[in-house]
UniProtKB/TrEMBL annotation:
InterPro entries: BMP_lipoprotein, Peripla_BP_I, PnrA-like. Belongs to the BMP lipoprotein family. Residues 44-336 form the ABC transporter substrate-binding protein PnrA-like domain. Keywords: Cell membrane, Lipoprotein, Membrane, Signal. It comes from the Bacteria. Its main location: membrane. The lineage of its organism: Bacteria, Bacillati, Actinomycetota, Actinomycetes, Streptosporangiales. This is BMP family ABC transporter substrate-binding protein. Gene3D superfamilies: 3.40.50.2300. The keyword GTP-binding does not apply.
Amino acid sequence: MGVRLRAFRAVMAGAVAAAVTAVAGCGGEVSTATPRTRPLQVGLVYDIGGRGDQSYNDAAAAGVDEAKRNLKGMRVREVEAAPGEPATRKVERVRALAAAGYDPIIAVGYSYAPALARIAPRFPRTRFAIVDEPTVKGPNITNLLFASEQGSFLMGAAAAMKSRTGDVGFVGGNPSPLVRKFEVGYVQGVKHVNPRVRIRIAYLTGPHDLNGFYRPDKAEKVARRMYRAGADVVYQVAGASGAGVFRAANDAGAWAIGVDYDQAKSADPAVRHVIMTSMIKRIDVAVYDYLAGVADHTVTSGPVVYDLRRGGVDYSLTGGHIDDIQPRLELLKQEIIHGRVKVSPG
């Protein structure tokens, strides 16, 4: 997968930002799904927010869009989730795609784990992939995973280096295990640079409530309280709710940190200048790489982990706001890659 990853980077050098504006290693068994020679008929099921969320879902969409440009004849059916929908809707959505002959089917987000656990065994010749979910397993399921704690460590380090008040914040969509990895890495990064920095942490909903990723109004209120209390950098890991954090940062004349995408290129132009940097999670690369593997019959089941070493997570430089600290961040990045700095996922 490393060869395709490098090739994808060359192809995607400018395409990712354009796509958004417009709207670990390999492991596991070889999939038992029967290879098919016809053009791929891809089913893509989004998490809450869907295409156009300027973050998580758009990253997956960009990978699929690039695959459509490069894999001859590929067709895609995209289906979005609705805020507050029952879990049974996700099961029905995945079942309908599999029954209609879509193969592979890519599920964006851990909330689809129960759906894949039920549907994948019933369609053993269909290939499935799920983003950010390690627990659901099967001979025809690939888990696309990211060392989010490593990228978030660098965000914490950047926040501590740039903060003038010694007070920073973290706003998460919900305290699920996935989002907690970001928080844990962020806290480690802050404390590595300056143990005296205060860290304010808030979540928008409970651990099983996905509406926290679709409440920019609530995120704005939470971030405003942090800024008024003294924080001058806030890292948001809240999907479409992150737009509210950016608005609060703009009003406070403070910094915000984006996630998943280079949000200084994808967010509302009115707030891009307050996005100090973003923790880039290359969901686009993982999705493209997976589809390329399906197309050339090399896809594997089980976990595929994208970390700093493999370029699966990184940070953005748009706007030049962290140019002054980039050498220190690069040093930390290399220390993590070579094991001299250990980052715990939780």
